[in-house]
Automatic annotation (TrEMBL), chains A, B:
The keyword Electron transport does not apply. The keyword Lyase applies. This is Alanine racemase. Residues 265-374 form the D-serine dehydratase-like domain. Keywords: Lyase. SUPFAM superfamilies: PLP-binding barrel. Belongs to the DSD1 family.
Amino acid sequence: MMKNKHELVGLDLNDERIETPAFVIDDEKLEANLEFAKTRCRALGVTLRPHLKTHKSWTIAERQMVSPEGPATVSTLAEARYFAVHGVKDMIYAVGIAPQKLRIVSEIRRAGCDLKILLDSVEAAKLVSDYCLRTGETIPALIEIDVDGHRSGLTPENPDIVEVAKALKNGARLAGVLTHAGGSYDCGSIESIREAARCERDGIVAAAEMLRRAGFEVPIVSVGSTPTMAFAEDETGVTEIRAGVYAFFDLFMANLGVAPIDRIAGSVLATVIGHQKAKGQVIVDAGFLAMSRDRSTQRQPTDYGFGLVCDVNGKPIEGGRVIMKGTNQEHGILEAMTGEPLKAEDFPIGMRVRVLPNHACPTAAPYRTMLLLDKEGRVKEELFHVRGWDVSSDEADDE
Amino acid sequence: MMKNKHELVGLDLNDERIETPAFVIDDEKLEANLEFAKTRCRALGVTLRPHLKTHKSWTIAERQMVSPEGPATVSTLAEARYFAVHGVKDMIYAVGIAPQKLRIVSEIRRAGCDLKILLDSVEAAKLVSDYCLRTGETIPALIEIDVDGHRSGLTPENPDIVEVAKALKNGARLAGVLTHAGGSYDCGSIESIREAARCERDGIVAAAEMLRRAGFEVPIVSVGSTPTMAFAEDETGVTEIRAGVYAFFDLFMANLGVAPIDRIAGSVLATVIGHQKAKGQVIVDAGFLAMSRDRSTQRQPTDYGFGLVCDVNGKPIEGGRVIMKGTNQEHGILEAMTGEPLKAEDFPIGMRVRVLPNHACPTAAPYRTMLLLDKEGRVKEELFHVRGWDVSSDEADDE
């Protein structure tokens, strides 16, 4: 029953050898999206340090980074190990460090990758410095700055920033400051995204300046989010931008105005398995495990349910009026946005559709492989990627 | 950097060799939950055909089924293949069939497993019969009945049921009727769950009787959902019950009144990585990939956010008042339900907590392994399971 790893190459998406649900990527759109960020960062005069958590794939990372050695950003140590094995030498693990994880950080660093960590308290800085003193290592750490109150970090004016840097000095090393303008996800207009980018820049530069006034070197001044990367006008004082979801884009980003729907590169291939004729519904074999439970477009101008339904070529059906209204674990329920019933004869059993996701990152995560499509919609390559958190898994080497 | 597969056995959950987030299972609670369903089904005089989609693990399935050969229910063909490889001989793939999948169904059947499929239309029945005529096989199919309008199936009084059976006769074989009382998930009281169970039984028995009057044999009359399994009073005419989430239970089931919180067997082990002192928040390293985006308790009496926070031993902290209020991909934000600020000193960096999920199935799905814990909270066994949809993956054999 086993198939060779690359036997899907050359097939079109109606071929039954392609099992559904499957995560598919339009290579042309992907390429345009990757180029977009490179161009933006060049124009802004900053380094692009892409966040690889959206796809977790080496094949994409290699094209996304400015060099095969990085720089890059990751969200788990499983990603860090995987990309380090593939030769990335400059990485930030951009989630606050837990002391239990330092052992693995050390292993990855000793294997030749300059993996940097993140923290936002004197407590964490002391734990890291103590670890470094015990092991004789010097782990570089960035201080997380909170520019918009959406998650972690010290506010830019908080004097504790200097205290954290001092605590790091006793063993570890200050590598810089980092912020993520997660608040930009709630912007209602392009102008407010520009304002979020200004606020992100002003905050991180203020934090860096506070540290420099206190006598610290601050080599990295890192900002990032896809919306602020897309619309920032001035990044003076910033050294690098991290962004990730732009590689695929998604309906959430489309609603925000960051990219049009036809730039969304990743979607879920599904097969029609039934109808509820009395209700005008169509049932497909992609449910909440295939799409994720993400309902983030619910609070946006257009609520796409669990996704926007396209034909097998990736074109929204009937001008974009069919959505995945509901899900069970392996069932997706399609309805017209207008409430008008869908006609069963337009969706025969066995018909394949592609569903654009609300949020690319959780949607891509559970698939063993992702299928890269050429311009004609044929499988060009089967991409392996990291799943889960298990650093010692050999799955990541499975290609 | 690789570790042996079983080197976690014997460790307690504070050991740094256990990476977080991790999915952990209290074996004693699991055992009680598995026994509960067996006892219920014996009392009701019906066969238990557990749904294995909650955990997708052979180790648990073997204890959950009434025999190592089944019967069992699965939600993907990847699960079907995995459990068939482990020796299950009687399985229902309880998601409407797509014609493209018949090839794989055949392969699994030829390998010795009596895998049955599901459909709810003349259109699908014809496709299956045509396939059988072409290949010379006789695939057994159940007709899906919709007793409460929540998803797929024909309503019990729909005369098309007989037409579907007729269409199956030309090649395939009618194996029975099946329904899932998914509507029971919306019940507001135990009495209304009992009513849902009556409605489920009445509907499926009516459908079976319609077929029998038309001259068909209906060997399987299958109902199922964890709530109706828990509270059904009479299953006369039903031959089997399918249920799945009871193996772990979860906050959604607790809110429904199906099981108390202390029966929830599966949780996510997470580590404190920071604080937002001004907001009284604690940040942990389990975000929406670790917990899933499921927010199903939002529409229930108690909204647990993304989960209820327990200490490392699994006891709700401060009487159950700490929840995971928000998530990012790899961040969880803990708050008190009461709005009162959490004290950072009660949650030092590096502290481990366990978070009970809203919905066990999507939470368990992304983990490479699940850790089974003994009474003392030490790792007893590392359980491998199926992930994703790739039937040809060899991952499922990874134990």
